[in-house]
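[agent] plan:
  1. take the single chain provided in the ticket
  2. run structure prediction with default settings
  3. attach structure tokens to the ticket
  4. add a short note for the reviewer (M.T.)
[agent] executing step 1
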Amino acid sequence: MPTSWLQLSLSAPTEALDTISNFLIERGSPGVVLEKNAVRAFFPHPNGKSLKRDVRLFYRALRTIYPAVKGKPLRWSVLKDKNWNSSWRRFFTPQKIGRNLWVTPPWLEPPRSQRRAVVTIEPGMAFGTGSHFTTRSCLEFIEEVCASLDGENCTALDVGTGSGILAIALAKMGAPKVVALDNDPVALEVARSNVRTNRVKNIVQLSDAGPARVKGSFAVVVANLVAETIIDLAQALKKRVSGNGYLILSGILKPKARDVLRHFTPAPFVLIREKAARGWVTLLLRKER
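[agent] step 2 finished; step 3 output follows
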């Protein structure tokens, strides 16, 4: 265990936060925290010189895509190991989502409530802790559609599972079978650990297959990806949803939402509702028989 940590703090426009956090995770950060128009990331110390150079070059290149990044400073600080938990973990608290869910990190107990299922997620090496709007809105739609379906028939497919949070929530909401896909081996390992922690190993089946290779159809299909990937997978996603089943699409920047919808509507899907905030859109669709 390192005796000290490097903390990176930076400001950025909302639409750039996921790109930045993904880069920092790939560069070795075990903890990335998204705040409003800001990112905090933590790295084992010392490995600062090459890390700072790589981040600086990445940040410079990012300005060509997101001009608003220009002029935003990169702030580095050193934290002693004894301050690690308070500096990183203090950003994660139990979150109440919808009517029936708590999402909590493993070191905290959520407030006791017999009416709420608890999803325990280790933050860090895979996307999905419930704090980002795209994940939260997916969870809210999952709660809604699971409540409307007969539990026995609520089979589910989670495409791009990341930390496994959506697959675990589906299991906790009564789905008898959940297939969770991701082509990132790190994400699958994190998801596997979270599935064990939440004791849903008998329900959630993890795989590195793409949706085109999955057999059968599902009452609920969730894809929290990006607009371009959703469009690329549109044909496979449509085939995986059973008649009268639900499709939840997220990770979509607002300007891309109409383009995504064109690949699913007016047939065979109808748009039931959408949630939008902070430049992101999540869509809830239903497949007509």
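[agent] step 4 note for reviewer: The CA atoms of residues 22 and 127 lie 8 Å apart.
[agent] ticket updated
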